[in-house]
């Protein structure tokens, strides 16, 4: 969606889609747990020159949420 | 433009946060929720803190590292797919493609790794991010409460990572280290490892070369490497130096082999070394294959691949180094040695506490000793000396059949390895010798059965190589069994087939004059012949006389084979020797008994024979004297006719003669008795007992030697009895003189008797012409002088004879006394019984006391 607004000619759109496909495939092989859309956002951010390490850290931190939702942890109840 | 970018970034981040949050909890994803804004703030903080990546942007390197990781995790198909995808991804260029490919790849890699770590490290760090997040609200309490956890968190928690960036620092310093190493080392470690591997095969590498000054492999000085590396290379290359030495020895020995005698043991040694070296080659081949793997930098995952560094090599080389060192030592020790000596030297090194060394030496020794044991086996079981290189501890030399046993084979102490004890070696020697003796001298084939039996009993296979080093028990039992059987067989052959005992008995009967009737007869018929000068005697005639002596005595019933061996021997004679001095009997023992009855043994028998013969002769002479002396009517008739004075004189002379004879006879009879019963028979009885007990030919030889020795010593023929022996011979000579005196005396008496009878006759018949008597010799003149003159003559004659007898008696007495007084002081031989017999009535003791 974000990408679509920048795309002008169909050739470039095709390349972008294929690239995204490849990246998504790779992401699956590496078992990153990212969906296609998130990946496209990340790729866009990378293209904008953001530090991939920082991006990875964000992904890591925000993906960490699910275990926190389990009621076992006493600290998790304090979060909301 | 900048602003636009900034806005774009913000939008994208918001989108990203929303998506990420919506993955877990759609409620959180709403932009209005406090959690969302908190997360967004957090994300922005992270993003703004890390502006530059910690690694250099290299898409290929990242892709490679991902691939390797996938491969090491066992997902080789994934790795392949990934590689394929990456090449396609990288090929997408131009508008619409991803510009920052490296960043994307790196991002994926980190996320993937993070997830993996999160899954594997689920237990404790699970709460940490939470703690990190609520730090703001919770204040310092928790930190104070759980400082330790905080520190742990410092490494796991993203927040703290951001502030400290330790991985980054490490990577940088590793890289710096890598640069430094590269700077310091002109050559990489891989190359050095390969060079060392070459050096360890005795080949010069590119940098590591053999330095004859140093006498070892070393890095050439011109190459710049740290000293530590240089040292470790030198250390590792010791193996190469040792290898060169061992290899050199092997090739040298092999080259020499056909021309010079390296020997079978030497060859076996070389082969064993060669085998050890081929083990070593195997190891080197494996190492060489590993050396092609690149040595990873410290920063990389060290568990990837079996690469070889110098340090790893030194671990690999630890064991071969010990072995190679041992081999080099052995090579040094064995250079000048051969055969058994070589095996012995190696055996000395096998006495080691280290099980590795012990096993190694054992294996080596089994190989090295196999030719030796093979020799032992064939020697003990077949009597074959398979020893072309003179390595065995038994050496044979070509000798005549008769000395085969004593001189044919000897132990070579230098070639006797320590693990074969002296006693077993002796037994081995004797067993093989016995077989050879049976084969050569006895012409016997039965030993083969005995050997087969021995093998069956010992339970060792007859195959070659059935014995080995370390099986001393097996060797011993084989040798024992073989020795027992072969020796028994040999003795059987000697006793039964070659009638050893019968021959010994024959020698005793004929040479030691045990057969009384034969000796008596022989003495009777050869006596007159032997009184002639030695040079006029024909040995053929004597042989004929011997023949007739045999035929007329009980000896004729003896085995013709034995009688056939009995011969007359004339000893070399000087001028004035009589037949008595040179005559002797000889016994031809023939092969194989000449091993026992060797020439020197026969010489000793001859000495005994001569002594006994002399004793017999003296006895014979005394008996002969007795024949004439014994009182009879003829002599008593004379007395009546004589004047009273002459008669008294005659009687006293005769009496003195009788007394002296009696004394001599007493001496000779008792000496004879002593020799016959206390020397010969006792020795023979001992010898017979020992013959039964004897287990092998050596025992038999020793028994026979003992027998002969005891006879020689007790018969006063030994070295230490020479004075006794000499006085004994003087006594014998005196007795022989006495014999001739007595003969003359009785001749005179008979003459006198004849005269007396004649004179009475002639007084009755005076017509009888005297011319006939005139012709007779000097005593004939007695008659003419008439009865008175006759009496006169007789008294004169008797007086002379009496004086001579007296002189003889005095001399004899003093000699005998001397002889007797010497008897008790002899220490080497027990003559108590002889003295006891000679002086039974203590006559001589008392006489000595009165004097």
From TrEMBL, chain A:
Subcellular localization(s) per the UniProt record: Cytoplasm, Cytoskeleton, Microtubule organizing center
Pfam families attached to this UniProt entry: MOZART1
Family: Belongs to the MOZART1 family.
Transmembrane regions listed in the UniProt entry: none
InterPro entries per UniProt: MZT1
Keyword Cytoplasm: yes
GO cellular component, one term: gamma-tubulin ring complex
Organism: Gossypium stocksii
Protein name, per record: Mitotic-spindle organizing protein 1
Record keywords: Cytoplasm, Cytoskeleton
GO biological process, one term: mitotic spindle assembly
Automatic annotation (TrEMBL), chain B:
Domain of life: Eukaryota
Domain annotation Gamma tubulin complex component C-terminal: ranges: 502-844
Domain Gamma tubulin complex component protein N-terminal residue range list: 193-496
Cross-referenced InterPro entries: GCP, GCP_C, GCP_C_sf, GCP_N
GO MF annotations in UniProt: gamma-tubulin binding; microtubule minus-end binding
Renumbered residue ranges of the record's region Disordered: 758-782
Keywords, in A-Z order: Cytoplasm, Cytoskeleton, Microtubule
Compartment annotation: Cytoplasm, Cytoskeleton
Segments of skewed composition (Basic and acidic residues): 763-777
Signal peptide start and end residues: none
Pfam hit, one: GCP_N_terminal
Gene Ontology CC entries for this record: gamma-tubulin complex; microtubule; spindle pole
Gene Ontology biological process terms, A to Z: cytoplasmic microtubule organization; meiotic cell cycle; microtubule nucleation; mitotic cell cycle; spindle assembly
Similarity remark: Belongs to the TUBGCP family.
Name of the protein this chain belongs to: Gamma-tubulin complex component
Protein source organism: Gossypium stocksii
Phylogenetic classification of the source organism: Eukaryota, Viridiplantae, Streptophyta, Embryophyta, Tracheophyta
